[in-house]
C-alpha cells in the first residue's frame, strides 16, 4: 500500500491534470465507478455535489493510496484503523475516523468525521498517485439513482464536458464498500458490504456491532456515512421486493390490469410469459451482488410499469456469503423503499 503502480497511461495523466484544475473525473473501482475530485479543494467538491444533485449534508468517501495518505485527512489513526487497513486495503472497506482540519467541511457534510478507503483497482490507484492528492469519489450517478458499474452507465448520466470518464471495464464487486465507524466505543458497521462483521471482528480481536437499518432523513444533521438516506440505489421504475410464492399472483394482477412487469429472479424454475420480461440473476452471493445494479438498469430500460424483485437468500453456508447477502438486502431495501 502507498506504493505507486506501473507508469500511468496518457489518459490518467490527462485526468490528473483535470483534477488539478478543479475538474471532475469518473474512475473505476472494484465496487462502483466514482465521481472524483480533489478532496482538499472545496470548490471541486462542491462541483461534485452539484453534478450529482446530492444533498449537501450527505458526506463523501475520500479515496487514498493507503494508510500514509489516509493519515493526512484524519486527525487520529488508531491501532484499529492500522489493523483493518493492513488486512483489507486496498479493498472494499471504508473507515470512519475523526476528520483532519485540512479537509473541507463539505466533504463530511458538515460533520466531524471523514470516511476513507483505498480502492482495489489499478486505474483508481494509479490516478491517486498521479494526482498526488486524496480524491472524493461518490458513485458516478445522480443522487439516489442506481449506482454505475461500467463506464457506459456514467456516460449516460453526465456529459463529456462535465466529467472525464476513465474506462476500466465492469466492476467486479458491484456494490459499495462496507463502512465501519471507528469513533464509537465499539466499532460498528454503518453500511454493509462484502466484508462482514465476523471478518472485521477477527482482525480487530474485539466485538463489532453489526449493521442495523439506519435511515437518515433528518435534514438538520449529517449522517456519519454515505448510503444511509432512505431512498438510494433506486431505479426509475417502481420496484417491489417479493417472495417467490407471491410472484404468480403479482403476474396475474398485472395481466388483469393490462400492464407489463419485469421480474428479477435467481430461481432457475421461475418462468415468465409474454408480455412480461424476466432478468435471471446468479444464485451465488458475490456474482449476484456484482450483477445487481446492471440488472436494475436493464429492468429500467424495458420501460415496464413495475419491477418485481424476488427476495434473495438471507443465509448461506459461510459467514462471508451471508455477509454479502445481507449487503444485497440492504441495497434492495433502499431501492424499493416507498417514494
Tell me about this structure.
With 339 residues, the protein is of the alpha/beta class. It has two domains: 10-204, Alpha-Beta Complex (DHBP synthase), CATH 3.90.870.10; 239-335, Rossmann fold. It is built from ten helices and 13 strands. It has helices at 10-20, 42-52, 67-70, 79-88, 122-131, 151-157, 197-204, 247-257, 285-301, 319-335; strands at 24-27, 34-38, 61-63, 93-98, 113-117, 135-136, 163-165, 178-181, 188-191, 239-242, 261-265, 277-280, 306-310. The strands form two sheets. The chain has a nine-stranded mixed sheet with strand order 7-1-2-6-3-5-4-8-9, sandwiched between helices. Strands 10-13-11-12 form a four-stranded parallel sheet, sandwiched between helices. The longest helix has 17 residues, at 285-301.
Explain briefly what this protein structure is.
The protein has 339 residues and is α/β, with parallel strands linked by helices. The protein has helices at residues 10-20, 42-52, 67-70, 79-88, 122-131, 151-157, 197-204, 247-257, 285-301, 319-335; strands at residues 24-27, 34-38, 61-63, 93-98, 113-117, 135-136, 163-165, 178-181, 188-191, 239-242, 261-265, 277-280, 306-310.
Secondary-structure blueprint of this entry?
Blueprint: H1 10-20, E1 24-27, E2 34-38, H2 42-52, E3 61-63, H3 67-70, H4 79-88, E4 93-98, E5 113-117, H5 122-131, E6 135-136, H6 151-157, E7 163-165, E8 178-181, E9 188-191, H7 197-204, E10 239-242, H8 247-257, E11 261-265, E12 277-280, H9 285-301, E13 306-310, H10 319-335
